[in-house]
TrEMBL record:
Keyword Protein biosynthesis: no
Keywords: Molybdenum
InterPro entries, sorted: Mo/tungstate-bd_C_term_dom (IPR008995), Mop_domain (IPR004606), Transp-assoc_OB_typ1 (IPR005116)
Highest taxon above the source species: Bacteria
Residues of the Mop domain: 67-132
Species assigned in the record: Hydrogenimonas cancrithermarum
Pfam families registered for this protein in UniProt: TOBE
Protein name (Swiss-Prot/TrEMBL): Mop domain-containing protein
Keyword set includes Chloroplast: no
Amino acid sequence: MNRLKGSVTAIQCSGELSQVDIACGNTGLTAFMLGKPNENPGVAVGSDVWVLFKESEVALAKGFSGALSLRNRFEGRIGKIVLGDLLAEVTLAYAGDTIVSIISRRACEAMELKVGDRVTALVKANEITLMESD
């Protein structure tokens, strides 16, 4: 599980859904939560949170440009690639942390990914879980 520390900067609610903006280093992230802010006391504007997302929910782009609906983007450099028969585990250095992505080996080879490449990791807002910071 990828785990980054962030701080909640804004919360917007509509019905039983909340959109939470988080500052994570110099990157602005967005996550969706079920329920209203008073139902999630550990997640309030100004509070520190852990931003969690699965390795399998991280897509990678190389030479990314143009518009895309995914707002959660991490610019990083590949530090390690482990190739399996079907899958590839790609570890990125990002702002003093690491982000791990599990993609298909075919995608890794088609993108010609190698250690040292700069890539953009992309995560959908609904794939992020927020946890109260310790």
